[in-house]
Amino acid sequence: MRKLLICLLLTPFLFDSHAIAADCVDTACIDVYTQDGQIIIEGKKGSGPPAKAIPKPRVVKPKVIKPIFPELIPRPTATPKPTPKRTYKPRVKSTVKPTLKPKATATVSLNDRLIKILPTGGIAYQPEADPLVNVPIYFWCDLPTQFATRVTVVGEVVDVLLRPGFVWSFGDGTFLSTTDAGGPYPNGKIKHTYKNEGIYPVTLVESWNGNWTHNGTTRAITGTIKFTVFAIVTVVIAPTRFMF
Fold first, then answer.
1. For the chain, what is the domain count?
2. Is the residue at 241 inside a domain?
């Protein structure tokens, strides 16, 4: 039976609150960073450039020229108009309902926020049962060589690519830093040999780093995500047999 004890410890990195551009007018603002051990993808798209004010046309009033001798200008005499007879028309009720004009709504900016959770892997080793002193033990971690995803935020396509790195601590004071996830016998590249019997706590720190691409421009992701996993390896001495 495989002796394996895995304990997952999430090590978040605390950063200042990330805020994308306050005024995104013509193009979308995209930001990708880490927070609380997760990948955060934020997007903001503004409502468009502000409308320009149209100037009002200038009204020119005509000048009034006063006559030199106003008393010589003949005044028209008013002729009385005959009073028309009043006719009464029946009132007709209108059946047409008045149409209400829709209220103008102000355009608002569009925001979107996505959270991506990265995979985690435990420690495996071989031989699984009672590894011996002075015999190489093969270690590995079942993590993919990369994490790639494509998301759409506020109508913009964002590509995210991350790769893991590993720091091994074999419990006897020996450390190994590598980008290789290791593998079982015989092709595994992460091997360790214990010189003494005993119980050794093996620690593996998995860290993710990478970049993101938007509109053909690639940028590094702010921050690092780290996970820590453990395993207990019991190393024994081979029994001695006497042959007669």
1. 1
2. no
Spatial distance between the Cα atoms of 230 and 201, rounded to a whole number of angstroms: 7
Q: CA-to-CA distance for 232 and 44, rounded, in angstroms?
A: 47
State the DSSP string of 60-111: PPPPPPPPS-GGGSPPPPPPPPPPPPP---------PPPPPPPPP-----EE
* Residue 218 · residue 212 · CB < 8 Å: yes
Do the domain assignments include residue 48? no
Sign of torsion over alpha carbons 47, 52, 53, 57: negative
Q: Are strands 191-192 and 147-153 parallel, antiparallel or unpaired?
A: unpaired
Q: Is residue 193 part of a domain?
A: yes
Do 205 and 228 form a contact (C-beta atoms < 8 A)? yes
In a domain, 129, yes or no: yes
Determine the Cα–Cα distance for residues 197 and 131; give it in Å rounded to an integer.
9
Q: What is the CATH number of the domain that holds 187?
A: 2.60.40.10
pLDDT score, position 68: 62
For the stretch 85-131, pLDDT in tens is 666 666 756 565 656 555 544 444 577 888 888 888 999 999 998 89
Q: Print the domain residue range for 163.
A: 9-13+119-235
| 76 phi, psi to nearest 5 deg | -70, 145
Segment 156-177, tens digit of pLDDT: 999 999 999 999 999 999 999 9
